[in-house]
Amino acid sequence: MTGKQQSSQAVHIILWTAQVLLAALFMMGVIMKFQPIAKISVMMPWMGQVPAWFVRLLGIVDLAAALGLILPSLLRIKPRLTPWAAIGSIVLMLCASVFHIARGEASAIGLNIAAACIAAFIAWGRFTKSPIESR
């Protein structure tokens, strides 16, 4: 294996790691957003201050993000959807940041910014550096 092939393989592994980690983060969000609102709003007060249907809808959006980051590439069925899911994740995290800043919760956006950066890396990597081919 040449140095270029090893480098490409390393990038591929790092991208998969990023995809799995970001998908796991979104799945944690899914689990939280489908807990009883009274229970979860103790840790995250905003969830008790918006309609329950909105919290559940965000849980569904988180689920779509998690699945979009993994399944297209894993199954090699339209794997070009994975970087698009990453871009959607960036938009979601930016919207979440704006939401928290508007509520005076700017200190809560660190995780959103970190997730957006990981998603940007995935989008870049899967579009340009190490795309996954369809079957």
Key terms:
135 residues; mainly alpha; 0% strand
What can you see in these coordinates?
- The chain is mainly α.
- It contains six helices and no strands.
- Helices cover 78% and strands 0% of the residues.
- The two termini are 24 Å apart.
- Its main location: membrane.
- It is a multi-pass membrane protein.
- InterPro entries: DoxX.
- It comes from Ohtaekwangia koreensis.
Structure, briefly:
This protein has 135 residues and is mainly alpha-helical. It has six helices and no strands.
Write the layout of secondary structure elements.
Blueprint: H1 3-33, H2 37-40, H3 46-49, H4 52-75, H5 81-102, H6 110-129
Helix pairs in contact: 1-4, 1-6, 4-5, 5-6
Keywords: Membrane, Transmembrane, Transmembrane helix
GO cellular component, one term: membrane
Main location: membrane
Q: Let me know the largest β-sheet.
A: none
Number of separate structural domains? 1
Low-confidence runs (pLDDT<50, min 5 residues)? none
Tally of DSSP β-strands: 0
